[in-house]
Amino acid sequence: MMYNEISEIRDYVKDTMEILLGGKINIVNEYLYRNEKLDRLVRNAVFNEKRDLKDISRWIIRQSGCALGIVPASIQGLYESMGKGEYSGFTVPAINIRGLTYDVARAIIRAAIKNNVGAFIFEIAKSEIGYTEQRPSEYTAVVHAAAIREGFKGPIFIQGDHFQINAKKYTKDPEKEFNTVRDLIKEALEADFYNIDIDTSTLVDLSKQDIVEQQRLNFELAAKLTSFIRENQPEGITVSIGGEIGEVGGKNSTEEELRVYMDNYLKAINDKKGISKISIQTGTTHGGVPLPDGSVAKVKLDFDTLERLSKVARDEYGLSGAVQHGASTLPGDAFDKFPQTGTAEVHLATEFQNMIYENEQFPKDLKDEIYDYLKSNCADERKEGQTEEQFIYKTRKKGFGPFKEKMWNLSSSIKDNINAKLEDKFVFLFKKLNVVNTKDIVDKTIKPLKITQKPPVSVI
After folding, report:
1. Which residues, listed in sequence order, are joined to residue 324 by a DSSP beta bridge?
2. How many CA atoms, within 13 angstroms, populate the side-chain half-sphere of residue 103?
3. Which parts of the chain are coiled coil (predicted)?
4. Contact, 112 vs 429, CB < 8 A?
C-alpha cells in the first residue's frame, strides 16, 4: 500500500491526471481517480514514512481537488454580508475532526451534499494538532480527499481553531510563546487554512479592576497576530479571522468586555482588515463536564447573552456575530436556538469523538488498549477525587494520535456503521442550525481563488 519511489506515484496516477510544468494538474479520468486510486493516495499522505513521498501525495490531492472544483477558501465574504444584515437566520457549524478523519470528513460531505449545504467549516485546534498527530498539511489533504471521494464541488472552508497563547508559557517566556503561535499560523496558511481563530483570551486578567487592563494583553496580541496574518495571507485572499473575549469555561462575557476589546483592537490594527466574528463565553466548557459515572452534566447555556452580544457585534462593529464554543454535547433541542439568537458560528467536536468510541461495533480490545495507554501515559492529568470514568472521558481524545493507524485499519463494516450514524448526526445538526440550502448563498458571497502550489519535489 505504501509507495517507495516518486516514480511509483507518478505511474500510479498517470491514467487519471496530467501533471504539468508549474504544478498545474488536469484530471483526465475523474471516475477512476476518485473510486480506484484516491484511497491509496490519501493513506500515503498520512502514513508514508518517507517525508518526500508523504508531501507529494498531499500536494497531488490538494492540487487535484482544485482541478475538480474543490477550492480552499475564506468565509470572509459571507461573514461580511452577515455583518451588513444581508443574510441571517442560520448558524455556521465548525466541525473539529479528531480521529477517523477521512471517513468522518466523507460523512460530513455526504450530509452537506444531500442537504445543499454550503456554509460549514472543517477545523482543527492548536491542541488537537498535537494530540491527534495531524499537522495542517495532513488535515487539508485528508479533507480534500474526502471532498474528491464524495464528488463535492465548490469552496471548502478549513479553519485553525483556538490558535491559542498558553498563559503559563507566556508568563515564563512571552516572546517564545508568541512566536510558537505565529509560526503555527504561517504553517496553517501554507496549508490552505484561510480561516483562523486567534485565541489570546487566556491572557485576560480578571484580577485587575479596570476592564481595559483586564483585556489589554488580549487585544494587543490579537492585533499583532492579525497584522501577521494580513502580511502573510496569499495575494487575493482575505483570511477570515476570529477573536475571543472570554476563555471557554470561565465567567460569562459582557457587552462592556466586547466593546473594550473591539474598540482597542481596532485602534491597534489601524486600517487593516480586522476580525469577522467574536467568540464569547456563555456557560459551556470544552467537552462538557463528566459526572462520576462518566455521563455528562447538563449545561445551562446563556442564550440571552449570546443573542445580545451577537447583536452588538453586528450592529456596532459589522461582525457576523458571536461564536459559541463547546456546544456539541448540548441536548438536541438546544441547537435550533443558535440561529434564533443570531449566533454566527458554533464549534462542535466532542460528541463526534464520543460517537466513535461508544459505537457498539468499536472493537473492545482496541478500546481497552487505548484506555490502558491513557492510564499509563496521561496519569499526571488525573485530578484528585476523579473517578476512572471521568478520567477516561477527559483524556480519551488523546488516544486518536497514537492509535490513528489502528483506527484507520478498522474493517469497512465497522467504519460504515460508525459513519452512517455520524452522517445522520450531521444531517440533524445542519437542519437544526438552518444551513440547509445555503449553497447558493455561499456561491453568491464567496469567490474562491485557485492557487497553483508548486510541487515539493519534481514529479514530472
Report:
1. 346
2. 24
3. none
4. no
Strand-pair category, 277-279 with 345-348: unpaired
Q: What is the pLDDT of residues 218-272, one digit of tens each?
A: 999 999 999 999 999 999 999 999 999 976 545 788 999 999 999 999 999 999 9
The three three-digit cell numbers of residue 46, written as one number: 498520512
Q: How many CB atoms lie within 10 A of CB 182?
A: 16
Query: Which distant-in-sequence residues (6+ apart) come within 8 Å of 190 by Cβ?
Result: 136, 137
- The dihedral over CA atoms of 185, 189, 192, 195, expressed in degrees to the nearest 10, equals 60
SS3 of the chain: helix, strand, coil, percent, to 5: 55, 10, 35
Q: Residue 130, Cβ neighbours under 10 Å: how many?
A: 12
Q: How far is CA 429 from CA 43, 252, 272, 380, in A?
A: 29, 25, 35, 36
- Buried b or exposed e, range 185-216, using 16+ CB within 10 angstroms: beebbebbbbbbbbbbbbbbeeeeeebeebbb
Beta bridge partners of 164: 199
Predicted model pTM:
0.94
Burial 363-390, CB ≥16 within 10 A → b, else e: eeebbeebbebbeeebeeebeeeeeeeb
User: Looking at the domain that runs over 74-356+411-445, which CATH code has it been given?
Assistant: 3.20.20.70
Nearest Cα to Cα of residue 61 among 121, 122, 12: 12
Q: What integer pLDDT is reported at residue 253 of this predicted model?
A: 87
Distance CA 427, CA 420 (A): 11
Instruction: List the single range of 164-178, 186-200, 284-298, 313-327 with lowest mean pLDDT.
Output: 284-298
Q: DSSP assignment, residue 328?
A: T
Give the residue extent of every domain in the chain.
Answer: 6-67, 74-356+411-445, 360-408
Task: Using alpha carbons only, give the angle 122, 123, 127 rounded to the nearest 5 degrees.
Answer: 160
